[in-house]
C-alpha cells in the first residue's frame, strides 16, 4: 500500500496526475513521453487523460493504470538510463534483447558488457545489440559469462564479429599488446 509509494516515491499514495509523477521521479515531461513508448515499462498505449480545459497542464493530466509494477519498472529504468548514459530507446532495446524484458542481475551484467563493447569499439548501442544478435544465444552468453570484463583477445574477437567488414585479414589487426 502506502509503504511502497512512501518509501520509493515519497508519496502517500499512487500519483493520480502526471505532475505528481514527474516531481516524484525527478524527470521532465519530454522524458516521460519517451518512457511511455518503452516496451519494458509497459505504460500502455494511452496512459494519460488530458484535461479538456487545460490539455497542456500536467497537474491536470490524469494517469491511467499507473500501478506499483509499472512504477517500479519506471523507477529502475530511469535510474539505469541516467547511470548508463544510454538513450531511452537504446536501453529499452538492450533490456528487450539481453534480458527478455526482465531487468534482473543477469540482464544488468549483459548490459554492462554491451556498454563495454560500445565504449571500446565506438559502435552505437544499437549496432552492438544487432551484432550480438547475429552471434546467437550461446555465443552471446559466453561473451557475458564473466563479470570481470572482457580480455583484449575476447574484445577483438567480438569486435571482428560485430564489424560488417570483418575478414580473416582483419583478425591480424589485433594490437600486439592485446596478445
Short description:
This protein is mainly alpha-helical and 179 residues long.
Can you tell me about this structure?
It is a single chain. The protein is mainly alpha-helical. The protein is 55% helix and 2% strand. It is built from 9 helices and 2 strands; from the N terminus they run H-H-H-E-E-H-H-H-H-H-H. It has helices at 2-9, 18-25, 29-36, 68-84, 88-99, 105-121, 125-135, 137-143, 152-162, and strands at residues 48-49, 62-63. Strands 1-2 form a two-stranded antiparallel sheet. Helix 5 (88-99) crosses helix 6, helix 5 runs parallel beside helix 7 and helix 6 packs across helix 7 (125-135). The termini are far apart. Mean pLDDT is 79; it is low at 166-179.
Shape: elongated
Q: Largest sheet, order of strands side by side?
A: 1-2
Specify the helix fraction band.
55-70%
Separation of termini? 56 Å
Instruction: Indicate the structural class.
Output: mainly alpha
Low-confidence stretches: 166-179
Major sheet: size, sense and barrel closure? 2 strands, antiparallel
Helix count from the secondary structure assignment: 9
What is the tally of beta strands? 2
Beta-strand content bin: under 5%
**CA-atom Rg in angstroms:** 20 Å
H/E series: HHHEEHHHHHH
Mean pLDDT: 79
